[in-house]
């Protein structure tokens, strides 16, 4: 019999002690499989051998019905008795060579990896897959190894990718699943932030215990996991070159996104500062999206269920709001909605530095948008002491600015937008310079913040390449700003503001955009920077 095919996308690891009262493990696992679980591991640390085998057989009847492989944790004897598809072993269990000899070549054997040493030993075995973790601390496994965090996970995966193993490229190819503390609101962060640049090595999926086993609705939870994991297949690094096949497509694609926003009317939930609420709502409406402002914890899940996007702007937030900002980001993460984080004044005070670190360290921000000081602060540049919310620019060197955004995007595995006279945008691989706005924008409060609104609207309807959506949003915004400035008789901020909203409104209508040329070709207003 050939080895069963291995799909690690959503790997359910059991622990019947965590089941809600009145539910059986077999019933629970069956519902989880209906929700999209692709592989099951029976992990019962305290069950007597006879009961373990009996439960394994019962569970195997169910997993076989759905064509999903069943593995047994630690116990080769139980796997042999059940006749299931394989085992998962750690470093206190049977040695890989013994497990392979006893089980034969047709069975799946997975091995745990928590650090580089274990990775090297796992590589020497040439095992079928590896479980890498714990990503986060978890009470499901007492005395677990130190949590890796997403940067540690990424480093470990990068190291694994270099290990030749028995096949010469084992490390690059071996399917890898992350485990430990993974739930709906952090799964996308785990997937995105663990990915090596250029997608050289990505996770094959996630292994989950408590978020599924302790749930009252395992089928729904698994469906949500599957949806979020599908979003991750549109990687941060989706090649924009594929979307913009030639120069003339560039403009067409941007226009298509603008008209799609107006057709789909995505909800943009703003948690934003008091100064710009009104202007941001008007900008959002002008581009055809639907703004909502809410700062109540109880509304977060319902608003996230609209599948729009979130603008998280730290402008006038307080210490008391810190928890809410994080909860808002996490609610969006759990629904797979893009988050645009604007760390306004991040370098101005310790409260803002703390809030920034809290959000960036504990949630996934698809886009971080800020001026140079803010971007430097997110990067961890202690030298920056921002005065108010204005940028204390420390460099006039465009290449240095481009390098900054690229560096942060590479670290966060997201899109970074650095605003200024010239805007810089990077996904960590490609970096762009956009110099097509108008200087009067700097004289109207809220123009920086409401750029976040249009970015959120565009990204929410063009998730297949967030970088292109961001470039399109900035180009539309700047086109409207420029044309409004050119069109008004007396160029003052008041007249410009009205004309600007009108231009944004016009740009969203199909017949109007047909006449416009925002960016004729790459290199004209949107330039690729070689850094
Ligand atoms: C998919 C997956 N990865 C890692 C583990 C941990 O296994 P192990 O190191 O054997 O620890 P215990 O599970 O036995 O506590 C796993 N079970 N599954
Ligand atoms: C079984 C297991 N192994 C881990 C490892 O790091 O090897 S962490 C873990 C428990 C994962 O449970 P939860 O999804 O409830 O956090």
TrEMBL record:
The keyword Nucleotide-binding applies. GO terms for cellular component: cytoplasm. Residues 10-212 form the Thiamine phosphate synthase/TenI domain. It catalyses: 5-(2-hydroxyethyl)-4-methylthiazole + ATP = 4-methyl-5-(2-phosphooxyethyl)-thiazole + ADP + H(+); 2-[(2R,5Z)-2-carboxy-4-methylthiazol-5(2H)-ylidene]ethyl phosphate + 4-amino-2-methyl-5-(diphosphooxymethyl)pyrimidine + 2 H(+) = thiamine phosphate + CO2 + diphosphate; 4-methyl-5-(2-phosphooxyethyl)-thiazole + 4-amino-2-methyl-5-(diphosphooxymethyl)pyrimidine + H(+) = thiamine phosphate + diphosphate; 2-(2-carboxy-4-methylthiazol-5-yl)ethyl phosphate + 4-amino-2-methyl-5-(diphosphooxymethyl)pyrimidine + 2 H(+) = thiamine phosphate + CO2 + diphosphate. Pathway: Cofactor biosynthesis; thiamine diphosphate biosynthesis; thiamine phosphate from 4-amino-2-methyl-5-diphosphomethylpyrimidine and 4-methyl-5-(2-phosphoethyl)-thiazole: step 1/1; Cofactor biosynthesis; thiamine diphosphate biosynthesis; 4-methyl-5-(2-phosphoethyl)-thiazole from 5-(2-hydroxyethyl)-4-methylthiazole: step 1/1. GO terms for biological process: thiamine biosynthetic process; thiamine diphosphate biosynthetic process. Signal peptide: none annotated. One of its GO terms (molecular function) is ATP binding. The keyword Phosphoprotein does not apply. Its cofactor is Mg(2+). Keywords: ATP-binding, Kinase, Magnesium, Metal-binding, Nucleotide-binding, Thiamine biosynthesis, Transferase. CDD domains: THZ_kinase, TMP_TenI. In the C-terminal section; belongs to the Thz kinase family. Condenses 4-methyl-5-(beta-hydroxyethyl)thiazole monophosphate (THZ-P) and 2-methyl-4-amino-5-hydroxymethyl pyrimidine pyrophosphate (HMP-PP) to form thiamine monophosphate (TMP). This is Similar to Probable thiamine biosynthetic bifunctional enzyme acc. no. P40386.
